[in-house]
Q: What sequence folds into this?
């Protein structure tokens, strides 16, 4: 008999996280059976990419997400199952730039910097107490637009980035068609 | 308006604070050269600013802005020695008569700072001060060539003496500050907290009249308080003369040529100020054995089957204790109390070994204020080839002890440190004890 010693809650959480991700990956693979998705990108690479790991295949996955609609769809499904937070497409009532995006238990806002006019803050707030802190932000825009960025450490439920106002992350966040996944 | 350029000392060379900007974003950040490159110390800086965890908003707030962004000229990788420089930058920002400048040519004074600022605003010591000075010598020469006044500010004590030795003959003034209020006073910041005003400077090579005035002011104020109480009318007259003197000295410092004549102030009659003689904090230490209960064993004590019985180890004389037997000593419990705000302790094992089932309490690291008795328990292996012999060193002081603890741990002769530490108002108690091999 094999026995395991679980010493703390974090180990239980980590184990739950890994098995949850693998289960989601299995679902995606089952759907992808018979298509060429699996051959184009290894499932393990896709999963590692979703987690934000520094995987040697990251550039291959990123390129595939921008060129292959089936892989993009599979990845979208994976994120839908396995991500911790989701900000859906926005219902834009005006043509103005959107500076706040709301999702279940999270909020992403854009704040201009007083110190450097060409820069803005991206503020990711988690409103659910005790939730797991995500490490990566995936932005899936309309068509084949995709961008991934690592999140800094959360502090008091907030992670704050500073970026150029012309950067892709800002363009995507301000586009109501962009879905955001935090994993 | 006095313009100051501020440099934070690092071993890789000084890093200039380029600008401090209030922001609406929730977290304060430190960025490099106005780029989006955020330094890893940002989280610590955010904590340093926020009320509750930090001191900046508590001392200079409340602020309309939610946070600050600091832009610096280069990387600051680790540690907390940036705190003194950042504190001074916020003090300048809060003062209507001072401003932070990036352009060295426009600076009236250049500040070079290294030190930690704790929650009680004590300026505490940091490592590598001499190396940080060494990494700045070329710039010191450049600034001297421009005729700039340079103030090197560190924690009073060893950092200050290290800085004096390393910066000697380089045309800078070295100041040791015991607290942030004193550090602010060096820049003439009236808005900074103003507890016990004591400033020690090196010889004023460039004839900085301001510092002479400031030192005189301190002496005069000390005597003047008593004088004012005794002769209020004469004090009022003298006070006006003093104000005129200090104002004159300030102008002389801001106009480089011609050299300002040193005006001797008309002082009140000498008044002897008797300062209470400082006394060393007291330390009490008790060493107790964790003995097995009647009919029990140390194995049962270690693995939760039985509660140990506490038995005091016999004290022979001074810090010497009688030998304890291994068979009925499952572990040792040290109980400490000190009259100082801070307490630190460490074991120097001379032979044998012990098992530290739990970490030494953080309250005994010397960096947190403590109240009441503190305890530390270690376990001993039941079989040993050599006796467990050790020295237990305990320090107590009203100032943080982290740096002294680290220094003492690297020092072979603990007894030799007794008098050195006593001069710094740090009490060191050394106890020794031995548990037999079998």
A:
């Amino acid at each position: 008999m094999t026995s395991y010693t679980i010493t703390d809650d974090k180990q239980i959480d980590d184990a739950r996280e890994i098995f949850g991700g693998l289960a989601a990956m299995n679902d995606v693979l089952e759907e992808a059976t018979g298509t060429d998705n699996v051959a184009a990108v290894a499932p393990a690479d896709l999963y590692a990419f979703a987690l934000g790991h520094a995987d040697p295949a990251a550039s291959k996955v990123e390129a595939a997400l921008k060129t292959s609609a089936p892989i993009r769809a599979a990845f979208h499904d994976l994120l839908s199952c396995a991500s911790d937070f989701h900000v859906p497409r926005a219902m834009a009532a005006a043509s103005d730039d959107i500076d706040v995006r709301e999702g279940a238990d999270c909020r992403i806002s854009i704040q201009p910097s007083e110190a450097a006019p060409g820069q803005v803050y991206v503020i990711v707030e988690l409103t659910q107490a005790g939730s797991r802190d995500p490490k990566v932000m995936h932005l899936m825009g309309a068509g084949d637009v995709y961008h991934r960025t690592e999140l800094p450490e959360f502090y008091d439920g907030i992670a704050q980035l500073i970026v150029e106002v012309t950067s892709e992350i800002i363009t995507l966040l301000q586009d109501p068609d962009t879905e955001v996944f935090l994993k | 308006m006095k313009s100051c350029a501020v440099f934070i000392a690092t071993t890789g060379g000084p890093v200039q604070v380029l600008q401090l900007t209030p922001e609406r974003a929730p977290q304060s950040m430190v960025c490099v050269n106005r780029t989006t490159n955020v330094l890893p110390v940002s989280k610590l800086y955010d904590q340093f600013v926020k009320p509750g965890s930090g001191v900046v908003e508590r001392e200079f707030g409340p602020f309309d802005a939610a946070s600050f962004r600091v832009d610096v000229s280069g990387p600051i990788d680790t540690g907390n020695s940036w705190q003194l420089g950042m504190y001074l930058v916020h003090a300048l920002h809060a003062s209507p008569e001072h401003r932070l400048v990036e352009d060295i040519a426009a600076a009236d004074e250049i500040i070079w700072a290294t030190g930690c600022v704790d929650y009680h605003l004590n300026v505490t010591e940091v490592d590598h001060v001499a190396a940080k000075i060494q990494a700045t010598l070329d710039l010191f020469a450049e600034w001297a060539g421009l005729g700039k006044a340079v103030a090197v500010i560190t924690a009073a004590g060893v950092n200050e003496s290290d800085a004096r030795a390393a910066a000697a003959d380089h045309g800078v003034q070295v100041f040791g500050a015991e607290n942030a209020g004193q550090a602010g006073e060096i820049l003439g910041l009236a808005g900074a907290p103003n507890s016990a005003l004591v400033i020690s400077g090196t010889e004023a090579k460039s004839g900085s009249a301001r510092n002479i005035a400031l030192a005189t002011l301190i002496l005069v104020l000390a005597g003047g308080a008593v004088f004012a109480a005794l002769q209020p009318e004469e004090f009022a007259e003298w006070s006006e003369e003093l104000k005129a003197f200090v104002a004159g000295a300030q102008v002389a410092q801001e106009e480089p040529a011609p050299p300002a004549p040193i005006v001797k102030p008309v002082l009140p009659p000498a008044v002897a100020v008797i300062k209470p003689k400082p006394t060393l904090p007291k330390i009490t230490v008790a060493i107790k054995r964790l003995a097995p209960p009647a009919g029990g064993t140390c194995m049962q004590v270690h693995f939760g089957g039985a509660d140990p019985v506490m038995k005091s180890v016999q004290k022979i004389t001074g810090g010497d204790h009688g030998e304890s037997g291994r068979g009925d000593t499952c572990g040792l419990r040290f109980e400490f109390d000190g009259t100082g705000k801070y307490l630190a302790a460490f074991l120097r094992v001379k032979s044998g070994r012990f098992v530290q089932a739990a970490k030494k309490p953080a309250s005994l690291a010397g960096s947190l204020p403590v109240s009441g008795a503190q305890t530390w328990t270690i376990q001993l292996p039941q079989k040993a080839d050599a006796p467990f012999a050790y020295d237990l060193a305990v320090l107590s002081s009203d100032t943080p002890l982290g740096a002294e603890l680290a220094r003492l741990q690297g020092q072979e002769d603990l007894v030799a440190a007794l008098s050195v530490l006593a001069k710094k108002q740090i009490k060191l108690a050394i106890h020794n004890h031995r548990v037999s091999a079998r």
About this structure: The helical segments of chain A are 9-32, 37-40, 43-51, 58-67, 69-82, 168-173. The first helix of chain A runs from residue 9 to 32.
